[in-house]
């Protein structure tokens, strides 16, 4: 049990004294970057889905 207590103590010290936390401005900037990247990826996937759907529709109508 002493090992668990020591682990928790060391973890707390590392999180409070050794970790460099981002500033509020850096955090906002990163959040905006992630949001923009997610939107771009979503639009690319949507476009690919639309193109593949169109191609398959043309293919299946040509078979009939």
UniProtKB/TrEMBL annotation:
Keywords: Cell membrane, Membrane, Protein transport, Translocation, Transmembrane, Transmembrane helix, Transport. Its main location: membrane. It holds the Pfam family SecE. It is found in: Cell membrane; Membrane. InterPro entries: SecE_bac, SecE_sf, Translocase_SecE/Sec61-g. It is a single-pass membrane protein. The chain crosses the membrane at residues 31-56. One of its GO terms (biological process) is protein transport by the Sec complex. GO terms for cellular component: plasma membrane. The keyword Aminoacyl-tRNA synthetase does not apply. GO terms for molecular function: protein transmembrane transporter activity. The keyword Oxidoreductase does not apply. Belongs to the SecE/SEC61-gamma family. Component of the Sec protein translocase complex. Heterotrimer consisting of SecY, SecE and SecG subunits. The heterotrimers can form oligomers, although 1 heterotrimer is thought to be able to translocate proteins. Interacts with the ribosome. Interacts with SecDF, and other proteins may be involved. Interacts with SecA. Essential subunit of the Sec protein translocation channel SecYEG. Clamps together the 2 halves of SecY. May contact the channel plug during translocation. This is Protein translocase subunit SecE. It comes from Mucilaginibacter gilvus.
